[in-house]
User: What shape does this take?
Amino acid sequence: MIDTDFLHTPFYIATIALKNRVLLAPMDGFTDSPFRRICQEFGSSLNTSEFINGIDVEYGHPHLKFHTYFSEDERPFAYQIFDDDPQRLLRSALKLEENKPDLIDVNMGCSAKNVSNRGAGAGLLKNPQKIGLIITLLVNRLQIPVTAKIRLGWDDDSLNYLEVVRILEDCGVSAITVHARTRKQEFSGRSNWNAIAEIKQITKVPIIGNGDVNSLADAARMIQQTGCDAVMIGRNAIGNPWIFSGIDKTTIPSPELFRVIETHLRSMCELYSPRIGTLMFRKHMARYLSDFLTSPEIRRIIFSIENPSILLENISFLIGVNSRQFNVGF
Assistant: This one.
């Protein structure tokens, strides 16, 4: 069995101390404050916002207040931002810095077509000169550390990750997260951990690996194989925050599953409103209850409920828990 104890040792991004080497990856539509706090409970050592569009910061957006919200107990906390316009990205970062995050992270890895095709996210990998301009602007003007998340390149014919990493380091970035796939791969195929090892060999700043980490054992293997300083876990944490504690979800007792579901749902209802929070919780619920949603009829019933108390009553029945042991009222 692979040793995972070293994952619980601290490391630093600039002067920011992180208590361990396993982090929740930012994911659009998922890593809001309620989900971040759930993952933090089980061991994630850095909370990063959903990625925030520089256009929304500059011109306003009705959902911006939810994307930018974080609580003091979430520290260390980072805002992740994206844009294709260096000056607007700078203005957005300066505006977000007023909320006193610990870090600003620049998204250079989003593969979504509506982001990358406009030259933002992974689209920036096509323009290393612009990457250098963005990081130089932010590092020179912000009072907090600047980090970046990248992919290996646009496709297999343009693997420019070593060039990009050198530019990022030369321009003063404090850490680099590497999703070891290309933009063209999106989330398909295998991630290339050997590329992370190459990057680690040429850099002095902390390198955070990302891609195909399904357990703490995988996180330990990635660090041992690549030499990276820490690991981000993304999609495999949805519906399974226990991954940060090294606990196999299939061994979780039903009362513990229900406790986490109730805590997560309640937090979402408090942030958004009971009805909206319940509707938004469905994407998490589908993963929490993946082993219990065994028929179209069960799914239809569970996903048609808009009242959080009624939803919890039905979930408790579904997974065999006495809801009277918990506070299901809202």
Notes: Residues 209 and 248 are 22 Å apart (CA to CA). The first helix runs from residue 33 to 42.
